[in-house]
Design a protein that fits this description.
Blueprint lengths: L1 E4 L8 H14 L5 H22 L2 E7 L2 E8 L8 H11 L7 E7 L3 E8 L19 H9 L7 E8 L8 H10 L3 E6 L8 E7 L3 E3 L3 E10 L3 E9 L2 E10 L2 E10 L4 E11 L9 E9 L3 E6 L6 H9 L3 E5 L8 H4 L4 E5 L8 H14 L2 E5 L14 H5 L2 E2 L11 E8 L7 H16 L5 E7 L3 E9 L3 H9 L9 H13 L5 E8 L9 H10 L2 E8 L5 H10 L4 E4 L5 H13 L3 E2 L6 E2 L19 E2 L2 E2 L4 E5 L5 E8 L2 E6 L9 H4 L4 H11 L9 E8 L2 E8 L8 E6 L5 E5 L1 E4 L2 E7 L4 E9 L6 E11 L12 H12 L20 E6 L1 H20 L4 H9 L11 H24 L91 H27 L1
Parallel strand pairs: 3-4, 3-6, 6-7, 9-15, 16-17, 16-18, 18-19, 19-33, 21-22, 21-24, 24-25, 25-26
Antiparallel strand pairs: 1-2, 2-42, 4-5, 8-10, 10-13, 11-12, 11-14, 14-15, 20-30, 22-23, 27-29, 28-31, 31-32, 32-33, 34-35, 35-39, 36-37, 36-40, 38-39, 40-41
Helix pairs in contact: 1-2, 2-19, 4-5, 5-18, 6-17, 10-11, 10-15, 12-13, 21-22
């Protein structure tokens, strides 16, 4: 324990403070004695304490305990981590009793294996769950640094190969150094494997259609080998070569041809003999090929898109026709097209993932979308509350428009154990969407079954939808599968329902325990005009039974492999039962709000024979309407893209006059062109750099007025999207970062958000993170980085052979400061109050001081008497000086003169005085001795006795003979000068009362 001052120069204030206290002591006449001294002492203490506060008086203690946190790198490049655990355990055996240890593991992020503990039996296991595809030593060091408690001798022991690819351990090392935390490092030797990797794949950023180019590939290898290099464009092989590689970097170029416009993804793969790692054998890149626009046509019925393709190709627009089952599952594929057309496509044939990607492509990347009507489109296709409906300018729900027949609907849902997980959740969502489509006059019932039926919602009028929806959402999954009891129970309840239309929907993914007796059920349904549709989910379902039930009950059978289409199937069934969505009567559309399309219809509009009823959304622009009125042609802006709804068909069933109209090709071409991305060229140059699990975006604009706020939207293959607000570092230069958890292809679009509403600013582009940098062939610089970290923080480079040297060192002494400012201020305040009390309160301070000092006083020793007599001698000397002063002034009667000098009579030592003639009087016992002689100690009393007076001889008296007496006669001459002793006696006679007071005071003080 010690003290120190942070501002010692303030201690110079003690000099003027001492002068002030001295002056106060000399100039203060109001107080006296003990009270004055006490007040001065308190004030001096207050001033000294305040000066100590100003000078920063602190206490400190010295600590010498140790705390060690082991940081183990458990990324994939480290291989087996058992050797790390063993080394840590041996190291901990050498720790002291007061030394604390903790263990942290790190991969992409850090994880605590064990917190600080003094126990030597805590263990050194490494079991925390980590993402090993990346090495983030920065995250691990930060976590380890936060585990230390107090300010002990803190140290981190890092066990790693040093090959970090996320963050910067050097930056964290500087922070640890500032905190006084040293980092010891144990370099882990890298595994030596035979590995060949695709380090880089490069294609030109921009190409034109029919342009030849080279795909450049860099292959890095640790050994000499030969193999095959293959190049793919959008998963289509465009080149193959046999190559030989040597240790180090090897570069190759493969020639290609840009055949089709759009955004294309290229992939290079290698197949090398003896390659022990396949995680790094592929590389990716993007390029954009400019050329004529291209439209993707998805047709629900094969061969029904001829009118569309002929019209578009006449306008120099390329087309590609596919079925719904061929829709891409990768977001990059949709960027190949400028627009997408759904031609009478049922939602039950489009997976939920594809719907999400199409909606995202329109909203974020500006790709156009158009839906053409038909028996399986819009509400009839089950698009209610789907991402496709969200993107369209019309709603599938007929909001209070026309009279729809009352419907009785019972949903029979399989809840067996095989439905657990995503299946049962989608089944419940499907049932809930169906209920939301129904109206209050409809009757609904829901029965869930396993081995036996369970009525979740007994058949009832749909008054409170929320109650029904809550009941459906609580269906659990358990048990076996028995279809017959559930269908029989649903039929019994349906017979008692009195509605215009009655329908049962059966959904299951398993085999029924009972295979007979269904014919009687289906016959009863037919006799009572009850229909049944069945949905088979997956290959394990009883497809034969379900299809036979649907056929016998005059319903529809659905086989679903992708359970995400279940909501669309149920919605479609509910709409089909209403039969009011299709309006099949001839009419001539009326132009309502054509805008810039007015010129397309200025010569009149052909008639139509039917359409699918929908409801226009609030912000949609309705161009053509029916007499009801329902929208026939509507459009709107959705995010960065544009969408169009044509509610009649384009196959000729309802639109035979339109497809034969001479202006049909031009009109359809202009409608589709309106949906194309709305930018001619990009004013932005986008550069992406992948570093670990982060991709740095850098955008530069050559515009004179760059936007104040620029947003990047990044989408991956799984329809996930990240929104990144770019930071403007300089005029026209923006940067941002995107976190990437796994490799894949990514699309990016830029939006200008300066005006509050985001507007697409540039065409989409792409970037690729081919594989984790953890699998790159190491350059061998990791150990150098570890040594620099240890040198920076004051750590050491440890050895695998000496694990005990972690604790084989003297603990660094650390000074822990204790702030005393508050305590000193409190003490100064209390003493200041005491000082005021001493000065202002009328108390017997002298008595208080005496009583406080009584325990400290001791009885005087005999040796102290000499000092006490010396004091009396000084008083006697002063009395002599006073007697001389008063005697010369003539204040007393003089003795009569004598004839001659009278010799002084000798005095005996034991007597107090001599005789004076015959009339002399002896001194009383106990009288003080003559001046110049000391009285024995026992003769001294607290009060001085009255001195004997000499008798004056009368003038007529004569001395007696033999006694020295004098005869009567003339007065004798003046006596000779007296000795010092005689002067003292005379002074005592002159000023006895004053001396008595002085002696009393002296005696009191000497006690």
């Amino acid at each position: 324990m010690g003290v120190q001052f942070s501002s010692p120069w303030f201690l110079l204030l003690l000099i003027p403070a001492g002068a002030f206290l001295y002056y106060a002591y000399k100039s203060d006449f109001r107080l006296g004695g003990f009270r004055k001294k006490l007040a001065l002492f308190l004030r001096a203490c207050v001033i000294i304490l305040l000066i100590f506060v100003l000078s920063g008086l602190h206490g400190f203690t010295i600590l010498r305990d140790k705390q060690v946190v082991y940081l183990a790198d458990r990324s994939d490049s480290m291989g087996d981590t058992a050797r790390l655990s063993e080394w840590i355990g041996k190291s901990m055996d050498a720790k002291g009793e007061k030394d604390g240890t903790a263990i942290v593991s790190t991969g992409l992020e850090g994880a605590v294996e064990r917190k600080l503990s003094l126990s030597g039996e805590a263990g050194a296991s490494l079991n925390a769950a980590l993402e090993g595809k990346f090495t983030g030593l920065e995250s691990g060091l930060q976590l380890a640094g936060n585990l230390f408690e107090g300010t002990a001798d803190s140290r981190i022991v890092l066990l790693s190969d040093g090959e970090e690819n996320v963050g910067s351990m050097a930056a964290t090392g500087r922070l640890l150094k500032d905190r006084g935390i040293a980092v010891d490092v144990l370099p882990v030797p890298q595994r030596e494997i035979r590995d060949a990797a695709v380090e880089e794949l490069r294609v030109p950023d921009k190409l034109y259609q029919a342009e030849s180019f080279y795909v450049e590939v860099m292959i890095k290898s640790t050994f000499k080998t030969a193999g095959e290099l293959r190049i793919y464009e959008d998963n289509r092989e465009i080149g193959r070569e046999v190559v030989e590689v040597s240790p180090g970097e090897n570069r190759f170029a493969v020639k290609g041809l840009a055949k089709s416009p759009g955004l294309h993804r290229y992939r290079a793969e290698i197949f090398m003999d003896g390659d022990e790692s396949s995680a790094n054998n592929a590389g990716f890149d993007f390029t954009r090929v400019d050329g004529p626009p291209k439209v993707l046509i998805v047709e629900g019925t094969p061969g029904t898109s001829g009118n569309i393709t002929a019209a578009l190709e006449s306008g120099m627009i390329g087309t590609e026709v596919i079925s719904p089952h061929m829709l891409p599952l990768e977001a990059a594929k949709y960027a190949l097209y400028d627009s997408i057309i759904f031609n009478n496509v049922s939602g039950s044939n489009v997976g939920g993932k594809q719907m999400d990607m199409i909606e995202q492509a329109v909203r974020s990347f500006g790709i156009g979308f158009m839906m053409a009507g038909g028996d399986d489109s819009f509400g009839m296709g089950g698009y209610f509350k789907t991402p496709i409906e969200k993107a369209l300018p019309v709603s599938m729900e007929l909001e209070g428009k026309r009279e729809i027949p009352s419907l009785g609907l019972i949903l029979v849902i399989d809840r067996s154990g095989s439905m657990a997980g995503n299946k049962i959740e989608l089944a419940k969502e499907s049932a809930m969407r169906t209920v939301e489509l129904m109206r209050s006059k409809d009757t609904v019932g829901v029965v869930a079954f396993d081995d036996s039926p369970w009525w979740v919602v007994p058949p009832q009028k749909l008054g409170d939808k929320e109650e029904v929806l809550n009941a459906i959402s609580s269906i659990p999954s358990a048990g076996g599968t028995n279809i017959y009891p559930a269908v029989s129970s649903a039929l019994d309840e349906m017979l008692s329902i009195k509605t215009q239309r009655r329908h049962i929907i059966l959904m299951t993914d398993g085999q029924s325990a009972v295979q007979s007796g269904y014919d009687e059920l289906t016959q009863t349904m037919v006799d009572n005009k009850i229909t049944l549709s069945s949905v088979a989910v997956g290959m394990d379902s009883d497809t034969n039974l379900l299809q036979s039930l649907a056929d016998a009950a005059k319903g529809r059978y659905y086989y679903v492999e992708d359970e995400t289409t279940l909501p669309a199937v149920f919605s479609r069934e509910a709409v089909l039962m209403a039969k009011s969505y299709i309006v099949d009567k001839p009419f001539v559309p009326a132009m309502q709000n054509a805008g810039d399309w007015a010129s397309l219809f200025d010569q009149g509009v052909p008639g139509l024979y039917g359409y699918v009823a929908t409801t226009p959304k609030a912000s949609a622009q309705t161009v053509l309407t029916s007499p009801e009125p329902d929208p026939v042609l509507a459009r709107w802006q959705y995010g960065s893209g544009r969408t169009v709804a044509w509610t009649s068909d384009l196959s000729g069933k309802w639109s035979k006059e339109w497809v034969s109209w001479p202006a049909f090709a031009n009109t359809l071409t202009e409608i589709v062109k309106w949906t194309f991305p709305q930018f001619a060229s990009s004013p932005y140059e986008v550069t992406t750099t992948a570093a670990g699990n982060q991709v740095k975006l850098q955008v530069e604009s050559d515009s004179d007025n760059p936007p104040e706020k620029l947003i990047a939207k990044v989408a991956g293959d799984e329809a996930g999207e990240q929104t990144v607000e770019l930071i403007q570092e300089a005029p026209g230069r923006y940067t941002g970062q995107v976190n990437v958890s796994k490799p894949g292809a990514f699309l990016m679009s830029l939006e200008d958000a300066s005006g509050g509403n985001s507007v697409q600013a540039a065409p989409g582009t792409g970037f690729v993170v081919p594989y984790s940098p953890e699998y790159r062939i190491s350059s061998g610089s990791g150990e150098d980085g570890l040594k620099k970290l240890a040198e920076m923080t004051g750590g050491r480079v440890l050895s695998w052979d000496k694990p005990e040297e972690v604790f084989d060192r003297e603990a660094t002494s650390r000074k822990v400061l204790h702030d005393w400012s508050y305590s000193l201020l409190v003490a100064a305040l209390l003493l200041w109050v005491a000082d005021i009390a001493v000065r202002r309160l009328a108390l017997p301070w002298a008595a208080i001081g005496a009583r406080l000092a009584a325990p400290l006083r001791r009885r005087p020793a005999p040796a102290a008497e000499t000092g006490r007599d010396a004091g009396l001698d000084r008083l006697a000397a002063r009395k002599d000086r006073a007697a001389s002063f008063y005697g010369s002034s003539g204040g007393s009667a003089k003795p009569p003169a004598a004839d001659g000098p009278v010799p002084e009579q000798p005095r005996d030592r034991g007597a107090g005085t001599g005789e004076a003639g015959g009339g002399g009087t002896a001194p009383a016992p106990g009288a003080a001795p003559a001046a110049g002689r000391k009285a024995p100690p026992e003769a001294r009393v607290p009060q001085r006795p009255k001195m004997p007076q000499r008798e004056k001889t009368p003038a007529s008296a004569k001395p007696a003979g033999g006694t020295g007496g004098r005869s009567a006669g003339p007065p004798p001459p003046p006596p000779p000068p007296k000795s010092s002793g005689g002067k003292a006696l005379e002074a005592e006679e002159q000023s006895g009362s004053a001396m008595d007071r002085l002696l009393k005071a002296k005696n009191r003080n000497s006690r």
